Amino acid sequence: MNLDKLLTKGQILWLTHIGALIPLAWLLYQDYTSGLSVNPIQDWTLRTGKPALVLLVLSLACTPLNIILGWRNIIPARKWLGLYAFSYAAVHFYIFIGEDYGFQWIYIWQDVGTKLYIIVGFSALLILLPLALTSSKGWMRRLGKWWKKLHQWVYLAGVLAVFHYVWVVKADYREPAAWGVLLGIFLLVRIPVVRKRIARWRSRLRGPAAPRARRSPA
Amino acid sequence: MSRIQIPKIPWQEITPEEVFLNRRKFMKGAGLALGTAALAACSMPEVEEVASGGETESAESEAAPAELAATDELGDPLNTFEQITNYNNYYEFSTDKQAVARLAEGYPTSPWTVEIGGLVNNPGTYDVDDLKQMFDIEERVYRLRCVEAWSMVIPWMGFQLSDLLKVIEPTSEANYVRMETILDMEGMPGQRNSSWYQWPYVEGLRIDEAMNPLAILATGLYGKDLLPQNGAPIRLVVPWKYGFKSVKSIVKLDLVAEQPTSLWMAAAGHEYGFYANVNPEVNHPRWSQATERRIGERGRRPTLMFNGYEEQVAYLYEGMDLVANY
User: Fold this and answer.
1) Is residue A210 part of a domain?
2) Which domain holds residue B183?
3) A172:B268 CB<8 A
4) Has residue A212 been placed in a domain?
5) What's the rounded mean pLDDT across residues B234-240?
6) Are the Cβ atoms of A42 and B150 closer than 8 angstroms?
7) CA-to-CA distance for A77 and A83, rounded, in angstroms?
8) pLDDT tens string B38-71
9) Do B112 and B131 contact (CB within 8 A), yes or no?
10) Residues of chain B contacting A171 with CB distance shorter than 8 Å
């Protein structure tokens, strides 16, 4: 099956935009129609945090999907998924300091000092900030080889985001752990040795005459 | 000395049950609190007597202005019936606090019996309706502080756990009260779907904690019978402890010699201890215990030692290391 024939780049981008905005649209709709709980601030916190994590993991899934399935059209979605992840994380952060703590800095500071998950989550956001700012083609050109080095920090942001989630869950760690495992797989696929093995395995699957088995082992 | 002012929301505008709560009833609760506070300094066995003594205070309340909103003894308004019945941590139904009310709707809570036994002279199976006849049902306006750092003010109806203990007569070997929620995989989707937790829900109190007049078995709130999502038909309320200690829909109450292991101790004992007293000084890795959000308010307010019931309960923990006994 050729995935690139199934969906064009444009179609994938449209799906990305729509999919990424659905959680926000639904949240806003429920807020306006009083569909949230009596603790709406907590709803906003959870329902901006989760999409941020999921979108970040999905962003990090694009490259592995290309490596494993040869799905090239998914690559342009990577940037937008990352930008949406950052946007949700930024709203999540505002909700935390502005709505939850009402900018009461003394209380915020007390909690920052005692709760590792806050520091870890904030670190992830701080990493994503420069990546979001330099996500354009122009910045890609300007930064040259440094662009890739800078944007590899997203791996760390992903790991921190998973730990942030693990540490806020009460006792049932299965779901955050699942995201962690998924992220781990996506990072693992990127390791050059693994990547080459997958490429070799794919070309063997396709048979010796496969026209697109063009990756050199070097 | 004042640090930060928390904006107050005009509750009168959104409290649907405002008519319900008349001041006399409230002051009865407040009087009790005051009376207990006064006696907490005295010898412990007498504390039980105080409860009824508090009622005499109510006469004074008539002088207070009538337009005063229904509040707890600290002057904070009650949460609405709507809020109290639609935001519930009741994992037996769902981990989604908003979904519990819907999933628990129509859950059969009558007839209901509580099996009382263990180290007591008068064991037996008690019908909840009989228990309500046996003891004085009174209103208690209590703050509920969840370990997740949100809180409410709730007008419970119930009777003192100490009254029940006096009837069932714990033997001299009894040191703890152990309580159990109903185990019902069929009727409770949360129990069915989450094998992560070791159902049924178990909680416990040291016997002197259980004898404290603040500890009640609640059967109603806002003057009505409890709804299933709030732990109908009978639940514990211990307002100086985090909400999860107040075990819901009790079917079993035993007096035991050894400290019971609660469901939360079994699930994550490094975070949820046996005592679980509200304590802003003892940190929890996830939620702020120094501050809390009163449901309906924006921003946070400082959490009070023992949830504001320090005078009534501090004697229970004298000389104890509250960090080690979290």
Assistant:
1) no
2) 74-317
3) no
4) no
5) 98
6) yes
7) 10
8) 444 333 333 333 444 344 444 444 444 443 348 9
9) no
10) 196-197, 264, 267-268, 271
